[in-house]
Design goal:
Layout lengths: L1 H7 L4 H8 L7 H20 L4 H10 L7 H20 L4 H23 L3 H18 L6 H9 L1 H20 L4
Length: about 180
């Protein structure tokens, strides 16, 4: 039973039966489905640690100098709306788990960057984000809004990256 439950995380019920009851390992569709799930969870595992070095560096230096707050906020918006959209549409965790962990890590980095500028702003940012999460994940939030935000991810990311470059240029000059 434990093996059946474990395989259920990675395979559709039909494929679990193919493998455990019929002992038929030749079904290409089941192999592909299993591989897709394993890779999905691998990406989630990797993303759960992707920003940890940046968090450690910020904590070690007790400074977030050089980071673009606007870029961080836009990134946080992207990850949060992706997480919310996929959850609201009942997608499996393997399809949005990466966004969940990236949102958490980006929140921590943003909170640190804001808090080291002003503790009051850090508290306000936390309160606004938590309130935003409450609205985003409540039945009050129309799926059409989440859909619209999801479709705007690429333009928002472009603005975020331009903000990073502008901050770098402003802080470091043009190299001349």
């Amino acid at each position: 039973m434990a093996l059946r439950n474990a395989l259920g995380w990675f395979l559709p019920p039909r494929c679990v039966d193919e493998y455990l009851i019929r002992m038929d390992f030749s079904d290409g569709a089941c192999f592909t489905a299993g591989l897709s799930k394993v890779l999905g969870y691998g990406v989630i595992a990797g993303s759960s640690l992707v920003k940890v070095p940046q968090v450690v560096k910020i904590l070690g230096s007790r400074s977030a100098a050089g980071l673009s707050i606007l870029s961080l906020l836009l990134e946080l918006l992207i990850y949060t709306t992706t997480f919310a959209y996929f959850l609201a549409n009942s997608y499996p965790f393997s399809s949005y788990g990466e966004a969940t962990f990236l949102a958490l890590q980006t929140f921590i980095i943003t909170w640190l960057a804001i808090t080291w500028k002003s503790q009051a702003l850090g508290v306000a940012f936390s309160a606004v984000y938590v309130a935003g999460l409450a609205v985003t994940f409540s039945p009050v939030m129309p799926l059409s809004v989440l859909y619209t935000l999801q479709t705007l991810n690429v333009p928002i990311m472009l603005v975020s990256k331009v903000s990073v470059q502008w901050t770098f240029f402003k802080n470091c000059g043009h190299g001349g």
